Predict the structure.
Amino acid sequence: MIIVTGATGALNGATVDHLLERLPAGEIAVAVRDTAKAEHFARRGVEVRRGDYADPATLPAAFAGADQLLLVSSNDPAADAVGLHRTAVDAAVTAGVKRILYTSHQAAAPGNPFAPGRDHFATEQLLAGSGVAWTSLRNGFYAHSLQWLAGPWRETGVIAVPGDGPVSWTAREDAAEAAAVILVSGGAYDGPVTLTAPAAPTFAELAEVASELSGRTIRFQAMDESDWVAAQAAAGRPEPMTRFLLGFYQAARGGFFAGVDPLLGELLGRQPQDVRAALQATAH
């Protein structure tokens, strides 16, 4: 049986949809914090279980009988993500899960200025030491986040960011489908696997694409970090979130998101979406 956590979220929810195109519903279960939100899967024949990393007592039953377990990473910047992941991995080991898969990131590295990259690396170390077969899905940076990270360029005509560098903007939908393909592969992928779009444009290059899509000139502006932080404060954004996002731009400048890999396209059997599609959705 394949058990998928976080299936009420966009990423792993889409993975379950793709699994249902490939497997009988009886071979799939979801472990979610709020079972009411997974009713649509129950109606399709998927077993719905309650499982919450923050409530360890729920996890043994949630993970029971799993040949493969897809663990979604915590997306709460304020949470102790590694602690939550440790709880989930320990529970998976206790439950006798045969393979753990984890939604990681291509920038999983101990020196990453972007905090989730450090958390992903630490979680991969937990998996490596678990004694269980594991696969880490190192997804490229999700392209839909450009609606925040590129700033309000549609209104201002400027992409103004505090650090430029190449980013392999990757469609979350593509990553979700690839996870399903890997899950049904029967353990063909071991350890870290990198799943990215085929290119890693800089923000300066994104401004050129945005200009083409919008039919007007969109400029790129590299801001001083302190000026950018001050602008965020003036816009009323909480300082902890501003500092969190600043780590992203620092990591981009440091090349942490620059790598690209053909595997995603090979798994999908088609060309992955590029950044143009993400910008197209918000170009007008």
